[in-house]
Design a protein that fits this description.
alpha/beta; Rossmann fold; DNA polymerase, domain 1; 2 domains; 6-stranded parallel β-sheet; two-stranded antiparallel sheet; 9 helices; about 15% strand; binds 2-phosphoglycolic acid; binds magnesium ion
Length: about 230
Amino acid sequence: MTLKDKSVLLFDLDGTLVDSVPDLALAVNQTLQQLERDTFDEATIRNWVGNGALCLISRALSASKNIDNTLPEALVTKALSLFLSFYQDCVCVDSALYSGVKETLTALKERGYRLAIITNKPETFIEPILQGLALTNLFELQLGGDSLPERKPHPLPLFTACQQLKVSTEQCVMIGDSKNDILAAKAANIDSIGLSYGYNYDEDLAVHQPNYLFDNFNELLTVLDGVGELA
Ligand SMILES: O=C(O)COP(=O)(O)O
Ligand SMILES: [Mg+2]
């Protein structure tokens, strides 16, 4: 099966289109500082990204030396609210598109593919990032980690995208950098393409067997041109 048989491309955002860790790390550390906790380097924080803001901040608090084993709910709630407000102020300062993303998305759109975003990031941050990186008007649908009762690796966001775009699962491909993307795709019986350069908790994405695994975003065009076959 080539990408030619597909009409809808479902893209993950963080670690796939955008290297957002510099700004996420800044907001995490500002939060920890405010709470008088240890801060962390970007490489460490990178491995906590992938399951949405609540998980990110819970992982940061748990890793902090000066905290008890259990996380008091009130502390997590306070930290989350601080994080969301710090991140609001730096959502697209040092975040950057990965190489080839803009050209490839534009080429895909021009060839008639319908594009959507399915991220675990809170919905409120999607539009500012897309605007900051001049990626507006490309995506027909944008679902965040808090848009629905479930987020990736649950298949609900993918099923919802199919429903809202009025297409079948066979017409879609999920493209992402993390096991959450590949597992959600498999659970929805949707083909998947993994990208090796993003954030996957320092694990090899190949373990989760996406139909394709690319090192560069513009390799999507190779499949589109029918050079490659989806396994
Ligand atoms: O921000 C996150 O936790 C992950 O976001 P993603 O689903 O776009 O990779
Ligand atoms: Mg991702």
